[in-house]
Amino acid sequence: MHSSYADRYCILGAGTSGLAVAKNFLQQGIPFDCLEREDSIGGNWCYGKPASSVYASTHLISSKRLTEYTDFPMPEEYPEFPGHELVHAYLQDYARHFDLLPHIRFNTTVERIEPSASKWRITLAGGETRNYRGVVIANGHNWDPSFPEKPGEFSGTTLHSCEYKTPDVLSGKRVLVVGGGNSGCDLAVESATYADRAFHSMRRGYPILPKFFKGKPIDQCGETLLRWRIPLPLRRLAAKLVVRWVLGPPEMVGLPRPDHKLFETHPVINSRLHDQIAHGNLHVKPDIAELAGDTVRFVDGSSEQIDLIIYATGFKLSFPFIEKAELNWRDGRPDFFLNIFHPERNDLFCAGLIQPDSGQWGLVDYQSQLMASYLVALRNNSPAAARFNELKQSSINNWNGRGSYLDSPRHRLEVEHFGYRRELKKLIGKLV
């Protein structure tokens, strides 16, 4: 066992969240190692790696200006919604610009994390153990696929959206895409383009927003309304009018009418779904009732012969390397203040454990700034650190930015980005 790690923090993962933590720790003089299982940075955006769930045609859902890090803008020549190649190039430039690569240990898999006296014992693949001062879990939460349980057996091919990569698997097939979120809608459009016949099964209707309104990314339009402090009912009305002007009512093309209000679920942004349905290239179906060989029966009594089912049904929240009790586990997730800070411990953090209604990396940058400021305040025995400790214990489930989302597993990590960002910036100001 090596003793030189005892004053360092261990950052798990060199994806978009781990890089933000590494940058902020480096700027604040906090010693750390960033441990990465793969041989390169980028995590989910490193197309073709085992840890990546992006496919060949993946682009950002949020616009570049609301996705980028706070102090490293995406290049002006990038399109509003860059594809995964440009995204990965941006992340590589970020790591080089802030000189992060010397602090990242590649091809290093963490098998186990457990508390040991006043440290954390990290067990690596191969058996090596290290004692670190603290741990930042930043390995992402979109990697353990979730499949719905349906009666019967399907004799065709089954994929999760994270396993789908290229459209050649769709060619000549009758394809059913299951799931009404962003990945489900994107893959339904892709199936409508390349499959012999394409179907899209949704349990419920979701409000779908266009990617652009009058040439401007729709999330930047929403950001303007939030900056102007327009009340939620008026923002809902504005968004509803935009949807009717640009896309039309969902039921006009056969999509189910949403059973909830705008901004009560994670936003679905897609400008092409309505078009593919209206052209007869995509056929909308309700929830699956039963699987029967190569036939799928739906709850409305209809049935279709299917060759390939793609389940775009989200991910389980999994941390196989650490006991749930160490994560203050409640209601299917770690119960951390701001989804970052353990309420009792000052040496265990999560980064990127959020699903915002806009871009994520800038928010994780602010998370990391707050985390680093807190550790510096602790190091300096600052009264601000003591006040923050009281706050994270007493206000663990009472902070701004949660939003008013429907109570469902899909929204366990959901945050309203504008209020959440404002809360992070306010608390950073109190610690510096």
Automatic annotation (TrEMBL):
Which top-rank group of organisms is this from?
Bacteria
- Enumerate the InterPro entries for this protein: FAD/NAD-bd_sf, Flavin_mOase, Flavin_mOase-like, FMO-like
Reactions that this protein is recorded to catalyse: 3,4-dihydroxybenzoate + bromide + NADPH + O2 + 2 H(+) = 3-bromo-4,5-dihydroxybenzoate + NADP(+) + 2 H2O; bromide + 4-hydroxybenzoate + NADPH + O2 + 2 H(+) = 3-bromo-4-hydroxybenzoate + NADP(+) + 2 H2O; 2 bromide + 4-hydroxybenzoate + 2 NADPH + 2 O2 + 5 H(+) = 2,4-dibromophenol + CO2 + 2 NADP(+) + 4 H2O; 3-bromo-4,5-dihydroxybenzoate + bromide + NADPH + O2 + 3 H(+) = 3,5-dibromobenzene-1,2-diol + CO2 + NADP(+) + 2 H2O
- As recorded in UniProt, its EC number(s) are 1.14.19.55
List the keywords (alphabetical): FAD, Flavoprotein, Monooxygenase, NADP, Oxidoreductase
Which GO-annotated molecular functions does the record name?
Answer: flavin adenine dinucleotide binding; N,N-dimethylaniline monooxygenase activity; NADP binding
Q: Name one Pfam family in it.
A: FMO-like
Q: Which major enzyme category is it?
A: oxidoreductase
Needs which cofactor?
Answer: FAD
**Belongs to which family?**
Belongs to the FMO family.
Cited PANTHER family: DIMETHYLANILINE MONOOXYGENASE
Protein name in UniProt: 4-hydroxybenzoate brominase (decarboxylating)
Q: Which organism is it from?
A: Bythopirellula polymerisocia
Q: What is the lineage of its organism?
A: Bacteria, Pseudomonadati, Planctomycetota, Planctomycetia, Pirellulales
What is the gene called?
Answer: hapE
